[in-house]
Write a structure and sequence with these properties.
CATH superfamily of the largest domain: Apc35880, domain 1
CATH topology of the largest domain: Alpha-Beta Plaits
Number of domains: 2
Distance between the termini: 11 Å
Low-confidence stretches: 13-23
Length: 264
């Protein structure tokens, strides 16, 4: 059985290579990640009980369908994938999707969930947000602004953490000066971890039931742990109504690598 699965997996990877050589141009992922006004969706799924009972050949056939759905939409969206299984009890896999139009993300998710592969998974949670240009509050020194623009340490960052946040009504009732002062304190507390913990913020008010989605990448989970402890001590955190619930923790995987893991 193991040899049969290995052979079928080899065929799947050959098909993957043929798809990769197609003429459809993928969007500029780095540009989508850097530009303001780009939609970001986090879609987490759990496998149903039937998946564990399927034979290797059937799993590989279904994963071929997953590959086909991704390729079908790669002209308009950028997709990153994460394995949550083993690190999170909330879901097994996570898609982070970026696009200039939210309806393009919707079309991908509809096609994914209606596919033969999609019938093997259940939605564990979907969050939508929008990237915005960084807005430094008054009082940020030039040195602080320069530190914030410093690139994170080079090298792979295998761990990814997604934390949704909702602020209280009292936070939004504060005047701009009071909020700016607290965000300055927030930023000062986070700066020591800027190089080892990469963060991206998505604004979700009006698009979802949360106000922000915070996405982190790191190779040093101990630094991320210390960062969160530091954030909980600043005054601004007292205005946080929801932090996590759920928190998704996983490892970044290429599609081919994820397929190989799920095929076993």
């Amino acid at each position: 059985m193991r040899a049969q699965c290995a052979g079928l997996l080899g065929i799947l990877l050959m098909v993957t290579m043929l798809w990769a050589d197609g003429s459809v141009a993928a969007p500029d992922r780095e540009k989508l990640l850097a530009d303001p006004g780009v939609y970001g969706t986090f879609a987490a799924y759990s496998f149903n009980e039937d998946w564990a009972r399927k034979e290797g050949a059937t799993r590989i056939a279904l994963l071929t369908v997953l590959k086909g759905v991704v390729e079908q939409h790669r002209e308009k969206i950028a997709i990153d994938l994460y394995l949550l299984r083993g690190l999170s009890d909330h879901a097994d896999i996570l898609f982070r999707i970026h696009a200039n139009e939210l309806r393009d993300i919707q079309k991908f998710l509809v096609d994914l969930q209606s596919s033969a592969f999609g019938r093997q998974i259940q939605v564990a949670g979907i969050l939508h947000g929008l990237s915005k240009k960084a807005n430094y509050v008054p009082g940020f020194s030039d040195d602080m602004k320069a530190d914030l623009k410093t690139a994170s340490d080079p090298g792979p960052k295998p761990y990814a953490i997604v934390i949704p946040i909702r602020k209280s009504a009292d936070w939004w009732a504060l005047d701009q000066e009071a909020r700016a002062a607290m965000m300055k304190e927030h930023t000062e507390a986070a700066l020591p971890y800027h190089k080892t913990v990469k963060r991206k913020l998505y604004h979700s008010t009006g698009l979802d039931d949360v106000d922000f989605i915070t996405y982190f990448e790191t190779s040093k989970l101990e630094d991320f742990h210390s960062l969160i402890l530091a954030m909980e001590k600043v005054k601004e955190f007292q205005y946080t109504r929801r932090f996590g619930h759920p928190t998704w923790l996983g490892t970044a995987k290429g599609l081919d690598e994820l397929i190989e893991i799920l095929a076993q």
